[in-house]
Design goal:
alpha+beta, 5-stranded antiparallel beta sheet, 8 helices, disordered C terminus, DNA-binding
Length: 305
DNA sequence: GTTGAGCGTT
């Protein structure tokens, strides 16, 4: 299958718009969303059954129902029952509606047996409902499990059920809890830039751009080199950025955390107490210390906030 | 090559 245009409309009876496919014949959801903001998928009326059918959507990529898209008119899906156009509301509330009223969040799974794998977790929690993310936290050097992990369900009801009981996993009782990192909402700040934590090394700027396009126009993606497990994404609209803050989003199967690009304290790797200690020991005359401070400034550049 | 309350990224 090759590059083509598929016909897309907001309603079956509305005049369709032609939207380009990719070279492999798939269509990016972001391409649809560029013309129909807030779109979360496509459907079409099957010529055979006369029923509406959903178009397969995997990782932001829409796949043709048969060998090709044909001449069908594809109708835009909007989240839940919200069929209003995005321009009838502000961007922030649109994203909230798009994301549903009851957001699911990552759950920490405590007490895992050392031998339990992510596949084990997926198999176990899959009996409760659809699972969209599992992680087993491991020592980066040895690969040994740290005995805890994370799980994320599609449905909020599933999450509630999972938290309401203990879990026997590979012979041990485990608990699902809301992680401490979700304790309080992030402070609001009017920035167009968000901090994307827990990035994996295989995420490219293009992929991040493709992913975040679904929420609004992306003006910049910055991934520090060498790899530091985080990125900055800038939106054209600060309300879009703000609406995502505090969210856990799943990119390529990994849960990333969105927070403000300018937290109160950038003190994880360079705590101020660390500097104070150094300064007190070597009062103001260490070239290497100055160089280190320079690096820390570079790693948290004000130009990226 | 161990262990058994915790907490993922800046």
């Amino acid at each position: 299958m090759t590059e083509c245009y598929i016909r897309v409309a907001e309603d079956e009876n509305e005049e369709p718009m032609e939207i380009p496919s990719e070279e492999d014949g798939t269509v990016l959801l972001s391409t649809v969303a560029a013309q129909f903001p807030g779109a979360c998928g496509l459907r079409y009326r099957s010529p055979v059954s006369q029923c509406m059918r959903g178009v397969r959507l995997v990782e932001g990529i829409l796949h043709a129902p048969e060998s090709d898209w044909g001449n069908l008119v594809y109708v835009v899906n909007y989240p839940k029952d919200n069929k209003r156009k995005m321009d009838e509301m502000d961007a922030a509330s649109a994203v909230k509606i798009k994301r549903g009223v009851q957001k699911t969040s990552d759950l920490i799974v405590l007490g895992l047996p050392w031998k339990t794998t992510e596949q084990d977790l997926k198999d176990y929690f899959g009996t409760f409902g659809e699972v969209i993310m599992v992680q087993v936290k491991r020592d980066t050097k040895t690969g040994n499990s740290k005995g805890f992990g994370f799980v994320r369900f599609t449905e909020y009801e599933t999450q509630v059920k999972a938290m309401s009981q203990r879990h026997m996993i590979d012979g041990r009782w485990c608990d699902c809890k809301l992680p401490n990192s979700k304790a309080g909402p992030d402070e609001p700040m009017r920035s167009r830039k968000v901090f994307v934590g827990r990035c994996t090394e295989d995420m490219t700027t293009d992929e991040l751009r493709q992913f975040f396009m679904q929420y609004g126009e992306v003006t910049d993606v910055f991934i520090p080199k060498p790899f530091r497990a985080f990125a900055f994404v800038t939106f054209a609209d600060d309300q879009v950025a703000q609406s995502l803050c505090g969210e856990d989003l799943i990119i390529k199967g990994t849960s990333v955390h969105i927070s403000n690009a300018e937290p109160k304290h950038n003190n994880f790797f360079f705590p101020s107490t660390f500097f104070m200690h150094l300064f007190s020991n070597f009062p103001g005359r260490s070239p290497s210390l100055a160089a280190m401070f320079e690096r820390s400034q570079y790693q948290f550049p004000s130009s990226h906030v």
